[in-house]
Inverse folding.
């Protein structure tokens, strides 16, 4: 079973990636919202009998970063492919 930080990382990557692909013009807004959401979750946890961890926040943020990077790579490749197809 993956570690706690890995689960946070993957969850935020999976959270950010499809939304970034669907709304590429708002990719940085999506990233900022994901980071704020991850931070808010960690801040609220002590009030609901859980422990907020800075490590979880960084794992969330790392997942959001990778989600954005992967979406940018996919969008760039699709754009390049369309440009090649249009030239033919």
């Amino acid at each position: 079973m993956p570690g706690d930080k890995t689960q946070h990382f993957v969850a935020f990557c999976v959270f950010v990636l499809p939304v970034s692909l669907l709304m590429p013009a708002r990719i940085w807004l999506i990233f900022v919202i994901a980071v704020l959401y991850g931070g808010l979750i960690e801040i609220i946890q002590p009030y609901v009998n859980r422990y907020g961890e800075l490590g979880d926040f960084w794992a969330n943020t790392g997942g959001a970063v990778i989600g954005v990077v992967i979406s940018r790579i996919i969008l760039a490749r699709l754009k390049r492919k369309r440009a090649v197809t249009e030239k033919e």
Notes: DSSP finds three helices and no strands in the chain. The chain has a mean pLDDT of 93. The first helix runs from residue 4 to 22. Residues 4-87 form one domain.
